[in-house]
Amino acid sequence: MEALSYPFIGENVFDQLGLEADDPNRRVVKLVNPLSDEEPALRTTLLPGLLAALRRNDGRGSHDLALFETGLVFHPQDELKVAVRLPVDRRPTDEEIASLTEALPVQPRHAAVVLGGAREQAGWWGKGRPADWADAVEAARTLAREAGAELIVDQGQYGPWHPGRCAELKVVVDSTSSPSATPVSCTRASSRRSACPPAPAPWRSTWTAWRGPARARCARRASPPSRWPRRTSR
Predict the structure, then answer these.
(1) 42 pLDDT tier (thresholds 50, 70, 90)
(2) Among 1-15, 44-58, 151-165, which is the least confidently predicted range?
(3) Is 21 left (phi over 0), alpha (psi -120 to 50) or beta?
(4) How far is Cα 204 from Cα 200, in angstroms, rounded to an integer?
(5) 158, 192 in Cβ contact below 8 A?
(6) 205 and 139 in contact (C-beta within 8 Å)?
(7) What is the pLDDT of residue 194?
(8) Residues near 100 by Cβ (< 8 Å), separated by ≥ 6?
(9) CATH top-level class for 43-73+108-209?
(10) Residues 6+ apart with CB under 8 A from 198
């Protein structure tokens, strides 16, 4: 199911994710007039919004979830540039528009998914199983196939994932492999994709899988019996 979340975050989410103090995702773009003082920054990852949606649904009894989102994330420029003030009495020139565009933060498009609960539900067709790291890897491969790319799985390390339980997915570009994703672990999985030239636009993806009991998909499934009382004649 697709989840749409606001791009605004508070910097405390990075502490909740356990990111290191020097993690690049901690470098945020802050708004001058935020909608909420508690969320004055623009997101650098899709994970906070997706995990919040997962938490809300789990708290309301929906324990078996597969949520995804595609959207922009925002990274500050290496060199801070001040946007020009555009005139209101005439159309801005091409140079003024270009100067304004250059002052904008870097905005790559990311894709992310979080899995919670069971991938397959137990029933007459057999035992169920919870979502695990293999499902996260397969989600990344599915996205890569749609993009016409092939992923290579290798060992990697990205925060905040546990050392030794993180994998890096690479995509072959011009006969060389470039890092593209990072799925993880027996209890969590994450993957990120960096821009690989000569792709027309940079994008990344983050995959996260969480183990847990639940319902899931199955090729064969019987319809549950109705709980509605049968009609009786008087």
Answers:
(1) very high
(2) 151-165
(3) alpha
(4) 13
(5) yes
(6) no
(7) 32
(8) 83, 84, 86, 92
(9) alpha beta
(10) 173, 174
Q: Please, are residues 27 and 74 in contact by the beta-carbon 8 Å criterion?
A: no
Residues 6+ apart with CB under 8 A from 231: none
Residue 199: pLDDT over 60: no
- Sorted by where each begins, the domain ranges of the chain are 43-73+108-209
**DSSP string spanning 96-139?**
HHHHHHHTSPB--EEEEEEEESEEE--BTTB--EE--HHHHHHH
Beta strands in the chain (DSSP E): 8-9, 41-42, 65-72, 109-116, 118-120, 129-130, 151-155, 167-173, 176-181, 203-209
| End-to-end CA gap in the chain | 46
Q: C-alpha dihedral over 192, 194, 200, 201, to 10 degrees? A: 70
Q: 230: buried, middle or exposed (CB in 10 Å: 19+, 13-18, 0-12)?
A: exposed
pTM, two decimals, is 0.70
Nearest to 46 by CA among 23, 20, 73, 27: 73
Provide the 3-class DSSP secondary structure of residue 15.
Answer: helix
Six-digit token string for 186: 């027996």
